[in-house]
Amino acid sequence: MRQFSDLMCYKLGVASRKIQKYYNNRYCEFGITAVQSLVLLSLLEEDGQNIRNLAQKLSIDSSVTGLIDRLEKEQLVIRVVDAQDRRSFQIFLTEKGKEIADSIFPIAMQTDAILRSRTDGSDQGFIDNILVELDNMLE
Q: Can you tell me the distance from the alpha carbon of 27 to that of 136, in angstroms, rounded to the nearest whole number?
């Protein structure tokens, strides 16, 4: 008989929480959480995104405004009124935010390399495809 702990959603959830805990431990010296790092790294990749785009990209709809509020309070990001839509704000990294994002990006890359080192090349592509399929399926 299958157990709850055998379900894919359970195993993915456990792995996700362990990864988030790992990142929280690695990023605490920078004064940010794993979730906050996603915003900073997303802005490092494409600065000036609006809150809606960040929410969609990061799949964290309800809490993005709160994340931005906390990052702004820590002077890691600033909000600028969007010239094309004055009801919206673009979010930019401050110099301090960029320094932190630049510092944590290698940690994210190193962690990704560690995770990928546990599989061979064909497994990596398979895992990437499964994760993309799950993301698309669950939208």
A: 29
